[in-house]
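For the sake of transparency, this paper describes our internal protein records without simplification. Because each token names a local backbone shape, the row as a whole describes the fold. One such record is reproduced below, unchanged from the form in which we store it.
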Amino acid sequence: MAKDKPVKPPKIDIGIDKDTRARIAQGLSRLLADEYTLYLKTHNFHWNVTGPMFNTLHLMFEQQYLEAATAVDLVAERIRALGFPAPGTYKQYAALSSIEEVDGVPEWREMVAQLVKGHETCVRTAREIFPLVDEAHDEPSADLLTQRMQVHEKTAWMLRSLLE
């Protein structure tokens, strides 16, 4: 029986050179780390929230971490489409993320305040990448970043409203 020769995959030829794709993937990796860290923090708060706002926050946090679970997949898949491995370990996320982890279980107001900061951090990270993506005419990445900024800005506003 003849063995099949391995087929070398074709080079990526999407109109963006490899170095630019690498820089975009690096930026998206930072966003992925922020998104995943925020997902984990939100899920933690969902499990551990107490107090008079329990039901409202428990349900709100659940909606937010479910949305975030989808988002991390979209960001990781975009990194892969650009031809690079997506980070996927806690160690990588800790090195790449700008979002601070929390020790212990804060009271509900502090949970909300920390999530506002986390969502705003994701917006800033996405915004930092945008000029490079725009210059490269990388519309799929630009669309992803725009959608993520929109979700995070709206979520931060809704959370801030709970503290007014």
